[in-house]
Amino acid sequence: MLPNASTKRKGTEEGKVGLFFRFSKSESAAATAVIAILLLGLVFTIVSVVRLEYVPEWKNDAEQDYMYDILNDMWVVKTNIDVLSRLMEPNNSASNNISVTAPIDLGGGEIPFLEPLKSNGKLEVNTERYAMTVVMRNLSQKITPDNITFECGGITCYSENKQYPDQVIRYENGALILANSKSSVMRQPPSITIENKTTENNYTVTIQAVQLSGERDFTSSNTIVPLQLTGYKTEPVLDSNDYKNTSTSINAFNLTIATRYPDAWIEYFNETAQNKGLEYEKDYTVQHLKGSGHVRFSFLPNSTKKLERLYIIKTTIGAELGEENISILI
User: Are the beta carbons of 184 and 177 closer than 8 angstroms?
Assistant: First the structure.
């Protein structure tokens, strides 16, 4: 039996409807694919803009905070050495060879998910030279011995940043110094004091040499590195009062230091002397001996300002690096 005309028309219409639905589904799938590609492109663009425009600034801020953290760790090192120095004084009943461990976190500056890698740091013990020579003077008499020299050593922390300018944090002879490639500033003062306790014109100068014993050592890491400090002894080296009952007296001195951070020391000596009423080139001088890299502070003899007492003591502290990634109790 042959199909009639209405049956043919019905089949044709159903075919058209099926073709329309298939075409619609194909269009929908293509549109979905295009939308997905556009969204991926948008996400990629946003991520690229964030990484290029914002991540460097965020990284710079994170590494700056990391520098403050290291500076704080080194401040703890200085504080521990100061405490050990006091405990080792002859009139103190504490036992010798007291040890303390200070952790220094050499890794930081990371940004979670975006820049998870930490910046590295380098910690060195006794690799940079800090030496100090004191020359006792009397214009009319010869003093014997006339000079004392100390090889003090030091502890240095170098940053290895990706965005923020690299910094150097240095401990030497009681001073905590922050430096970069151009200049240096003193963040914590050394164990050198100028006092006028009896009268305005009579001065007592105390120089404490902090000598770090131990082998030259260094480590580069982005983890916590323990630094072990051991107090050995604090002992007097010279007291100008001992010369008062002899034919020799000390009324002036030169203090010369070998350091890689002259700016910090020059500023410290000038500020300390002037705060105590000493006048530059009349009562004291500070010179940067550029040929040798030394800094020299001189207390000058004159008719108005008198060096009543020069007192020099030496503290010996052991300093050595420990193993990384260990639990530390202080």
Answer: yes
- Separation of CA 204 from chain center: 31
Angle formed at CA 117 by CA 111 and CA 169, multiple of 5 degrees: 90
State whether residue 126 is helix, strand or coil: coil
Q: Does position 25 have pLDDT exceeding 60, yes or no?
A: no
pTM for the full model? 0.81
To the nearest whole number, what is the mean pLDDT of the chain?
Answer: 83
Task: Tell me how far apart the alpha carbons of residues 258 and 173 are, in angstroms, rounded to a whole number.
Answer: 11
Run of H or E residues at 291: none
Q: Which one-letter DSSP state was computed for residue 241?
A: G
More confident residue, 239 or 49: 239
- List the structure tokens of 312: 């020099």
For residues 197 and 217, what is the distance between their CA atoms, to the nearest angstrom?
A: 42
CB atoms within 10 A of CB 87: 16
Q: Residue 280, class by beta-carbon neighbours within 10 Å (0-12 exposed, 13-18 middle, 19+ buried)? A: exposed
Q: Return the bridge partners of 158, or none.
A: 122, 168
Backbone angles phi, psi at 241, to 5 degrees: -60, -25
- Distance from C-alpha of 221 to C-alpha of 223, rounded to nearest angstrom: 6
* C-beta neighbour count of 54 within 10 angstroms: 12
Residue with token string 């050990």: 84
Per-residue tokens: 15 = 């075919």
CB-side neighbour CA atoms (13 Å) of 165: 9
Quick check: helix, strand or coil at residue 266? helix
Euclidean distance between CA atoms 2 and 119, whole angstroms: 86
Which tokens go with 257? 């230091």
Q: Are 273 and 319 in contact (CB under 8 A)?
A: no
| Cβ–Cβ < 8 Å for 21, 28 | no
Token pair belonging to 246: 């002899």
Residue 329's pLDDT is what?
36
Q: How far apart are CA 239 and CA 196, in angstroms?
A: 17
Beta strands in 120-174 (DSSP E): 120-125, 131-137, 147-151, 155-160, 168-172
